[in-house]
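Posted in: Protein Modeling Q&A

I'm a second-year student putting together a small comparison for a lab meeting, and my supervisor asked me to include a predicted structure for Minor tail protein. I've never done this before, so apologies if this is the wrong subforum. The sequence is pasted below exactly as I got it from our records. If anyone can share the structure token output, I'd also love a short note on what stands out.
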Amino acid sequence: MSQYRFLFADLRTDQTLDQLPVQGVTFDDYIGKTGALSGTIPVPDAEIAARVKKAVVPGRTALWVERGPDLWWGGIVWTMTPAVDDRGAVTVAIQAATFDSFWDHAILRDTLEAQQMDQFDIARDLATYATDQEGGDIGIRIDYSKTSGVRRDRTYSRFDATRVREALDRLAAVENGFEWRVQVYREAATGERVKRLQLGYPTITAGAAPVMLTYPGNVLNYSWPQDATGMANTWQSRGATDNQNQADQSNPIMSTLWSYPEKLKAGWPRLDGSSDYNTVEKLTTLNEHAKADLARAKDPVVIPSIRTRLDGQVTPALIGSAVRLRIRDTWFSDGLDADYRVVGLHVTPAQRGQQESVELYLEAA
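Accepted answer (user: helix_wrangler)
Welcome! Here is the predicted structure, written out as tokens:
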């Protein structure tokens, strides 16, 4: 059984406060959305209760997960729920989220403008704004070494009270956009725990040679969902209300109606899609959003997941890495041999009656 350690630290200083046992743990991390951790701290006596009360304060406590010498997960404890069962046993359930969740609580209180600025620089300015506010520095490093080569105009009005996380997501989710996440790792030379804003254009990539995964083999099982509920072959987005002439009726600006007519010719029914961007005032920016939304919706969503044993090849550093997946079974009777990119993972540490495993979420390369 691999040894996991759960370290609780002050969010702003990263000073370790305590190491506590956490049971029934699962945790995940992704590109493009916030990862989560859940688990339960057993509280057998008053001494442990006092330690938990001191070390675990929702909203100001960081939680780090170590597996052996490596750092596997980091985030913020947002909820804790002490409870007692019918036998009088006390436990504290906790819920935590990766460090990017902090920017859900950071609001742009000033107007920020960018003209023909690299989209990476705009993203870094948004992150820096949050960091520069009093109490806003939680130690996320910002790397200024890379550019995307894509320049954009953006205005974030203080009257819109935009959250930094929302601004980053919308900046990235346009035609010719990028990916971002807050990566955690341990500095090899110093052993320091690191949080870093990771940017990738057009995608985040990691590693060199692809990791080989096979079923039957090191893959225990797999799931291959295909979801067309959000599919669309036409799209139009709504922007901010055009109220320059107060005497006229106010209406939102509308993007061009974009479509994939070849889908209809191929026999697909017409599937309409729409989205709202009520702070976007420029038609060019609104069109970039609409085209990107349609591109994501044009086909059924297929995000295969595979559950594999944890070994030296499978670690959280795989996020963004290439894998080569080979499957031969009843469903893939002719055999599957294809390249994918890891876009997320879900870890279940070994528990009573359950072996340690990791579920990898894949995207076609």
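A couple of things worth pointing out for your meeting: Residues 283-297 form the longest helix (15 residues). The chain has five helices and 24 strands.
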